[in-house]
Amino acid sequence: MRITKENFKIKELSARASKSYEIKEVYKKQSFFNNVLNFIESQNLLPIDNINVILNLSTDDKYPIGTVLIEKNSQKIVGFVGTFFSNRYSSSDEILFCNIHSWIVDKKHRLYSFYLISNLLNRNINLTAFTPVVPLKGLLLKLGFIKTFIEEKFYLNFNLFSFTKKKIEILETKTENFKDLSKRTEKISSQFSNKIFTKIIIKNELSEKLFILGILSKKKFFKVFKILYVSNTDIFKKFSNNILNVISKTYKVHFFSEYIIENDQKKITCKSVLGFGKKRDIYNRSNLKIGPYEIINSDLVL
To answer: Does the pLDDT at position 111 exceed 50?
Structure first.
């Protein structure tokens, strides 16, 4: 890491914080985990059910699901941050990412909020923060994060099933139906096994197959199918109207959404009408560009 004046300041503040506080990594299988959930619930800031879902999405027990801030004198938990670790697989290596989420600190101790991630800042980890509250955004910039934006694009599908001429079929996600799809696609399907994910294999009239990973969620008053991963965007775009119609009929959903990262024009769908977008700032402490894999392994899935 490049040594800067800011780095020295963080080290100085960390040394000061360590006199009054300690940080402790949290693992799902620890009995201590229940104490953490009690603290989160007592703060009454974020829906505990949503936090529980995100914490349980992590399937690799060798990584912590969060870090707590403990006041030394009282030994009470006074802060928590969720840490969602994941590996991006390249052709020759694994690249470690950690998504920071659900950053909660008792009001009296917020001066030392940064101390919760001090251990992460000193490791060779690509860090992301996609949903920080306003007071933390300035702190992230001071800690070396770069601000970009992401847009969740929504599309309304009328389910004009009677106009569908090209045959589209949904197959069960059984092992034999992954034939003709890549090994990576089958691995992704296996990896994201949590029940909140909806996994679909599409077969078109040309016997081409397509894998879609998504989540059925509710946004205020309407149901949305959030498309998180598509194994072949070319096939999807070519048959997008038919695919969306079949999904609409099968899952009784008329709104779809996808995430588009700043300066990325690779939209999955081709629909340009009856759509609207919602932008938000995201923060990244990495030299790598954020992709779909990092979004799936984060609190943006909800």
So the answer is: yes
pTM: 0.89
SS (H, E, C) 167-180: CEEEECCCHHHHCC
CA–CA distance, 220 with 238 (Å, rounded to integer): 31
Q: In 3D, which of 104, 133, 114 has the Cα closest to residue 36?
A: 104
Burial call 106-127: b when 16+ CB within 10 Å, e when fewer: beebeebbbbbbbbbbeeebbb
Q: Pull the structure tokens for residue 225.
A: 């199918």
Would you state the pLDDT for residue 1? 39
The pLDDT value recorded for residue 4 is 47
DSSP per position, 220-282: TTEEEEEEEEES-HHHHHHTHHHHHHHHHHHHT--EEEEEEETT----S----SSEEEEEEEE
Alpha-carbon gap, residue 255 to 226, rounded angstroms: 9
Which residues, 6+ apart, have CB-to-CB distance to 96 below 8 Å? Answer: 85, 86, 87, 124, 125, 126
Instruction: For 215-239, write each residue's pLDDT tens digit.
Output: 999 887 789 999 999 999 999 998 9
Closest CA relative to residue 280, chosen from 137, 156, 110, 143:
137
Q: By C-alpha distance, which of 237, 239, 230, 244 is closest to 274?
A: 244
Query: What confidence tens digit (pLDDT) does each residue in 250-259 have?
Result: 999 999 999 9
What gap in Å lies between CA 8 and CA 58, rounded to an integer? 33
